[in-house]
């Protein structure tokens, strides 16, 4: 018999299965799959904010920067230089942070770097970066930087743009580890620029019909965005695969419950499959076992906490549901080459030098 916790997860899976019937294969290795999009990219071990290291008790998780009760759960912000030109924007974007909403970062001019979960992306303009909830990121903007932020909830997207997807079966705002990131030429960006200006104008006018007009413009915007991504993905020759649906649901479960559930068998039970079937499906699409993907997600969170918090090794182990901190340390060392203490120490020395 399933307890209440596992029943709630099972309900989520059933709901997802109803909404997602066909999935197109997409390699889990985003770095390879999205190589044409991300431009120059390198591993980065820490965030720098205002030329100083920022250590946090917990990584800030920002809520929607406007009241959720607002009828239109979407907002556009203009960014000039290193500041967001909007007094109502409450978040400190000069610190590494997460948010519980989706953010479309639109870069129109200038230079900078966008750091997302240990990856450092050189900002190329014009370009569009999409962030999903839970990613730790920081944009380091130059003085000549110009751009926009589109901020919206997942509910808003699915309510008004259901069916718009970059890849069939994978919603535009699905959980992606490092993107997607789309760079364009000025000519290719023209249509997007017109739509952005139109959305901004309607926000400023705030007429009775503005909400419907904004949603219409956004519908075109997302269609254009999907078209661009589909063109890039076509170059990668994605292959459809009968196991795509199962692997997608498994990845969703891992993202939502990696702290509570570490065992492959539990995920298989919740998905209504045997561990053997789940293992075969995941490995055929990703080249990795389900267990490896679970551990990778745990190690990513451990690296985040070691880098951005002052929690000790034992506290981090317990936070990730490891009852034995020494076992957690062995797993961490096996995957990174360092003990948790060495990892944190090396980063601090690297920064101080």
| H and E string | HHHEEEEEEEEEEEHEEEHHHHHHHHH
Kindly identify the CATH topology of the largest domain.
Jelly Rolls
Category by helix and strand content? alpha+beta
* Beta-strand percentage range: 15-25%
CATH superfamily of the largest domain: Regulatory protein AraC
The CATH class of the largest domain is Mainly Beta
Structural Rg: 21 Å
Largest β sheet strand count, sense and barrel closure = 6 strands, antiparallel
**Distance between the terminal alpha carbons, to the nearest Å?**
56 Å
The overall strand count is 14
Estimated helix fraction: 40-55%
Description:
- With 353 residues, the protein is α+β, with helices and mostly antiparallel strands.
- The chain has helices spanning 4-19, 30-33, 35-38, 154-160, 186-205, 210-235, 244-257, 264-271, 275-286, 290-308, 313-319, 325-336, 340-352; strands spanning 41-43, 61-62, 74-80, 83-84, 98-99, 102-109, 112-116, 119-122, 127-131, 137-141, 146-152, 165-167, 170-171, 181-183.
- The strands form 4 sheets. Strands 4-3-11-6-9-14 form a 6-stranded antiparallel β-sheet. A 4-stranded antiparallel β-sheet has the order 1-8-7-10, with no helix packed on it.
- Helix 5 runs antiparallel to helix 6 (210-235), helix 7 runs parallel beside helix 10 (290-308) and helix 10 (290-308) crosses helix 12.
- The protein is built from 13 helices and 14 strands.
């Amino acid at each position: 018999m399933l307890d209440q916790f596992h029943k709630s997860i099972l309900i989520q899976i059933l709901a997802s299965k109803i909404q997602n019937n066909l999935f197109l294969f997409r390699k889990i290795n985003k770095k390879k799959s999205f190589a044409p999009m991300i431009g120059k990219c390198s591993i980065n071990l820490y965030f720098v904010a205002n030329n100083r290291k920022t250590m946090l008790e917990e990584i800030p998780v920002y809520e929607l920067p406007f009241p959720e009760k607002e009828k239109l759960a979407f907002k556009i912000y203009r960014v000039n230089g290193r500041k967001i030109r909007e007094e109502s924007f409450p978040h400190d974007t000069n610190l590494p942070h997460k948010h519980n909403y989706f953010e479309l970062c639109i870069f129109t001019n200038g230079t900078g770097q966008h750091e997302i979960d240990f990856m450092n992306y050189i900002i190329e303009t014009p370009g569009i970066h999409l962030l999903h909830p839970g990613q730790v990121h920081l944009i380091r903007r130059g003085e000549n930087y110009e751009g926009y932020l589109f901020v919206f909830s997942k509910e808003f997207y699915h309510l008004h743009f259901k069916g718009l997807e970059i890849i069939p079966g994978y919603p535009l705002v699905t959980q992606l580890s490092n993107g997607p990131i789309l760079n364009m030429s000025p000519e290719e960006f023209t249509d997007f620029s017109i739509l952005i200006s139109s959305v901004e104008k309607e926000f400023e006018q705030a007429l009775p019909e503005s909400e419907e007009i904004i949603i219409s413009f956004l519908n075109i915007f997302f269609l254009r965005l999907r078209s661009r991504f589909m063109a890039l993905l076509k170059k990668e020759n994605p292959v459809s695969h009968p196991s795509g649906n199962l692997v997608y649901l498994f990845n969703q479960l891992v993202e939502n419950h990696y702290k509570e559930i570490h065992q492959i068998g539990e995920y298989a039970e919740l998905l209504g499959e045997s561990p053997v079937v789940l293992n075969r499906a995941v490995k055929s699409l990703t080249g990795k076992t389900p267990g490896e993907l679970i551990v990778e997600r745990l190690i990513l969170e451990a690296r985040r906490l070691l880098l951005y918090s002052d929690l000790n090794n034992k506290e981090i182990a317990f936070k990730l549901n490891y009852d034995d901190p020494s076992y957690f340390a062995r797993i961490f060392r096996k995957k990174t080459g360092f003990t948790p203490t060495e990892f944190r120490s090396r980063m601090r020395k690297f920064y101080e030098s």
